[in-house]
Amino acid sequence: MRVDIVSIFPEYFAPLDVSLMGKARERGILDIHLHQLRDWTHDVHKTVDDTPYGGGPGMVMKPEVWGEALDAVIEDGRAASGPDALPRLIVPTPSGRPFTQEVALEYAGEPWLLFAPARYEGIDSRVVAEYGERLRADEVSIGDYVLAGGEAAVLVMVEAVGRLLPGVLGNACSVADDSFAPGAMANLLEGPVYTKPPVWRGHEVPEVLLSGHHGRIARWRRDEALRRTLARRPELAARFDQDDLDKHDRRVIEEFERSQERLEEGASTAGSGTAFRPGPDHMAD
Ligand code: 6GU
To answer: What is the 3-state secondary structure (H, E, C) of 109-159?
Structure first.
């Protein structure tokens, strides 16, 4: 996969030389090209921003410099990949569509991604409008918080996509078992994990994991994933597809809901004489 990144801080992407992404680049699975946006300015100050029309705080990135930069990078990529090649343009912004595991999988199927991370209040909106007419252009957010710029979001997305490329993780690790992976893990968080020693500071590894009984272990892992998702991400649990749930799943969910109700009853009668609140251990979540 070819990845182009245009930014006023190309040095921000040094982490892509490290670890899994570094190896993927060495092996030629990830072909990352970094570009300094200011190389396409024409004034001595290398200006990339200006005041917003309509007033308000902050600065907006100028369309002309982005247009020249993106045209040149696309031309360069076509010289390497063929005259019909077009990248998927990804513009990180907190006002974009959510970046999810599903989107990461979709991007992992593309031969060429072009990231345009902005600083300041963002890029003049005509840039996405213009490129949206020539190629697929997505405005994407990595979560409901505001970063100082899109660069960190690009690092997140390149790593999430890069690890999905064939040959990056090796066969031993299956991305199908990841949290959020479509299939058995859709809308599910992964449960807890353990390694040796079997007892550490008095904390024991759950006995079932030492049993060597693969069926019971798989069932236990699914139970823990269900309970953790119900406790930490109720909005994900609300999206469980009934057709994906077996009888045992439904019992785990019912038990969880009953223990929740007991907790709520306990809370509503607290101070009126009820000192004892029953509930299973996992409610500590
Ligand atoms: Cl993609 N960019 C910026 N600047 N802030 C964000 C974001 C992106 N996603 C969440 N917050």
So the answer is: CCCEEEECCCCCCCECCHHHHHHHCCCCEEEEECCCCCCCCCHHHHHHHHH
